[in-house]
Amino acid sequence: MVALVCVFVPAAAMWCALAGVGGAVVVCGVVLRRADRAASRAALALVVLAGMGAVSIAASLAVAGRESAALWDGRVVEATGEVTSSTSVGRDGRLWMEVQLTGIGSPGRIEGVSAPVRIGIDPADGFDLGATVRVKGEAVATDPGERSALVVFASTAAVEVPASGVFAVAAEVRSAFIERSLRMPAPGAGLLPGLAVGDTRAVSTDLNDDMRTSGLSHLTAVSGANCAIVVGAAFWFSALCGAGRRTRVLVAAVVLSGFVILVTPEPSVIRAAVMAGVAMLSVLFGRPSAGAGLLALSAVAILVADPWLASTPGFALSVAASGALILLSPSLTRGLARWMPQPLALAIAVPTAAQLVCGPIIALFAEQQSLIGLVANLLAAPAAPLATIIGLLACLTVPVPALADVLAASAWLPAAWIAQTATITADLPLAQVAVVPGIISAVIVAALSSAVGIMLAGGFRRLPFVRIVAGGVLACTLALGAASVVLDVPLARMTAPDDWAIAACDVGQGDALLVRSSGRVLVIDTGPEPEPLASCLRGLGIDRVDLLVLTHFDLDHVGGVEAVQGRVSVVLHGPPDTRGDERILERLADGGATVTSAAAGARGSLGDASWSVLWPPRRSMAVSAGNDASVVIEVDGGGVPRSLFLGDLSAEAQRMLLRAAHLRGPYPVVKVAHHGSADQDFSLYEGLHPTVALFSVGADNDYGHPRAETLDALETDGARVLRTDEQGRLLIGELEGQLQVWTQKQPP
Predict the structure, then answer these.
(1) Residue 676 to residue 177: CA distance in whole angstroms
(2) Residue 533 sits in which domain range?
(3) Hey, CA dihedral for 414, 420, 426, 428, is it positive or negative?
(4) Count of beta carbons in the 10 Å neighbourhood of residue 472
(5) Closest CA to 103 of 71, 127, 81, 73
(6) Which of 211-220, 621-630, 706-715 shows the highest mean pLDDT?
(7) Where is the Metallo-beta-lactamase domain (predicted)?
(8) Do 709 and 566 lie in a common domain?
């Protein structure tokens, strides 16, 4: 708590330090004068106050450097520093790393500053732990409490002094191991380095998303689970060789230290190693009460080294998971051992305990909750230790190629099992649900976790009522989950009419529209987030997308592209504007899609219907990327009423479209441009003469969409207005020349 106060309110750090040191001095006097029970309680208070003072002093000493770095917010800077973490590929395609600054300033004028920063660069080699780097780019200050004082989006980056010593050797060994792993079939090949040494650079975006959805992402990070597996294996092997308890502890400590160096001793790894080492040794010694005290002292020591870790979810999850290993996993092991061998029970109990305890913490800040995380972890639990230990041995034996190949191939099988577990469970209906992060969600998840823990551990035998309540909670949860699945998929498909041709999905403030003819499906934009579009596709029974049109690259039109990634045959897109836009297209291409730039004149078929692109123009009238370069597409025939989808065109671009495409109505269905904003050319709509005007818009938006003047103009022209914010999902079909309309709910 004191650490959180110090990092979020730096001005309070010195006052907390004075309070902690002063209180410790006073209590110390009490301890020296008395020798009764009160003295022992005072000694405990002394330890707490001393820890409080130490953490506060560490925070106050770091404030000056962080404030100096934050002064460069929003400016182009040149910075030098030492890499203090492993690198990982972000969702933006950049290579991200933590760097301890040694200097920062305007290009060519660097001043000495010491502060942690996070740097993103274009993918490159040599940025290993311990390397000294120089970067140039835009700096952005972080929010209070963030561990990094700045985030630097580097335009240029160079390694000034390469990593040396054990860090360089470890980097070479990891690179050779990754190269050897990638010779085997995907997706297990890319996952193996992540399981063995925490290097996730070879994990594909799709698999990474599936691991996160299924609650298995902790296996690819160097978490307490990996460290616990290494400690347990070292302890077991040394015991098998006849070593005494002290020797076993020493061997486990040496092996864990070597593991930390191999996977890069960044702060998160050291934190995980300390926590897992204490927890696992406590379990192995059978002294959970002593382990809890050691865990608390270790947590304080880590916060003294870096108080800003208190504000990171990873620190809270590490402490909670380690506490679960000490206090909960023995009970779960005994409970599971009733149905399976003891070693298997222990292997399953360790990740299960961590999952149950960490769930409520995750609910405090995560907007998504995995409903199949526990099941996925139970399925993956037997394979995780095998992949980690055998993969680690394969990494260490890289200098002996034949042996390394055998071990890598042996480790690939459990890695492939985990990858398939993640892929299959992530594709289950409601594998992940959107939740409102906060206390209420945490309480609900805590109740469910407690019920699962009680039933698995077989506890409270003398209080059967508690077990009955826990069983009731789980039964109700399963019933509600099953009902939700039935409503979301089979019943939703049954209630949707079979003869719809056009659908406007309710995805909030954004566009996601579908056109269907003779079983072929066209999707126009994907909305701001994946789950609303995925739910719409499930409800309509859509498994494959034949043509995806990305009108332009604003987030409310492409943010949900993950919902269709890997299920698209052809992609037509507007002009990309940034490297991030290009990465979206690259991911779609990696998923098997043929990616093509759209321009006026492009045409094709969709089942028995035909489509044609009317905008943007090819050359002379070309517009820059953005709203006015939105792809405008017309679809007609094959059971699809003549329809026009206008993207986010402004009034000026609409006038240009009207002149260039020589549009002539009527168009029975028109998707109104830019969610019905006021920036419309109403002469365009008069010429189109729509029967139905579709507004894809969110109920909660700060833009005032759709604007009253736009609604009035279209209604005056005789169009029926349909809005996703008021009527939910909209379906349109054509029967004997007449439009048929179905809405998900009645408008207010």
Answers:
(1) 55
(2) 492-743
(3) negative
(4) 11
(5) 81
(6) 706-715
(7) 509-674
(8) yes
pLDDT level of residue 621 (50, 70, 90 thresholds): very low
User: What one-letter code names the amino acid at 36?
Assistant: D
Q: Does residue 724 lie in a domain region?
A: yes
Q: Is 448 exposed, middle or buried (0-12, 13-18, 19+ CB in 10 A)?
A: buried
Same domain, yes or no: 88 and 210: no
Are 400 and 176 within 8 A, CB to CB? no
Distance CA 378, CA 365 (A): 24
State the Cα angle at 268 between 265 and 269, rounded to 5°. Answer: 40
Find the CATH number of the domain harbouring 623. 3.60.15.10
pLDDT, tens digit, for every residue of 125-168?
888 878 888 989 888 888 777 778 888 888 888 888 887 777 77
- The DSSP 8-state label assigned to residue 236 in this structure reads H
Residue 690 in any domain: the answer is yes
Residue 337 belongs to some domain of the structure: no
**One domain for residues 713 and 657:** yes
Residues 505 and 402 in one domain: no
Cis? peptide before 641, omega within 30° of 0: no
The helix (run of H) or strand (run of E) holding residue 99 is: strand 95-106
- The CATH number linked to 106 is 2.40.50.140
On whether residue 50 sits in a domain, the answer given is yes
Burial class (CB in 10 A: 0-12, 13-18, 19+), 440: exposed
- d(CA 575, CA 616) in angstroms, rounded, equals 9
Q: At 692, which amino acid appears?
A: V
513 CB burial (10 A radius; 0-12, 13-18, 19+): buried
Asked if 215 and 355 touch (Cβ cutoff 8 Å), the reply is: yes
Could you give the CA distance from residue 733 to residue 516 in angstroms, rounded to a whole number?
10
Nearest to 269 by CA among 235, 310, 308, 302: 302
Q: What share of the chain is helix, strand, coil (3-state, %, to 5)?
A: 55, 20, 30
Tell me, letter by letter, the H, E, C secondary structure of 158-202.
EEEECCCHHHHHHHHHHHHHHHHHCCCCCCHHHHHHHHHHCCCCC
Residue the block writes with tokens 């400016």:
75
Q: What does the pLDDT average to over 643-656?
A: 92
Beta-carbon contacts of residue 383 (< 8 Å; ≥ 6 apart): 414, 415, 417, 418, 421
Which residue shows structure tokens 């109920």?
699
Could you give the residue ranges of the DSSP H alpha helices within 341-438? 342-365, 373-380, 383-396, 401-426
Side chain identity, residue 325: L
DSSP result, 716-737: HTTPEEEEHHHH-SEEEEEETT
| Cα dihedral sign, 220-221-223-229 | positive
Taken in order 704, 709, 712, 714, is the CA torsion positive or negative? negative
Q: What pTM did the predictor assign?
A: 0.59
Same domain, 133 and 195: no
738 has which bridge partners?
Answer: 735
Q: Which residues of 540-551 are buried (b: 16+ CB within 10 A; e: fewer)?
A: bebeebbbbbbb
Query: Quick one: tokens of 57?
Result: 């002093």
Instruction: Output Rg (C-alpha) for the chain, integer angstroms.
Output: 30
> What's the total number of domains in the chain?
4
Same domain, 155 and 184: no
Q: State the Cα–Cα distance between residues 673 and 681, nearest whole angstrom.
A: 10
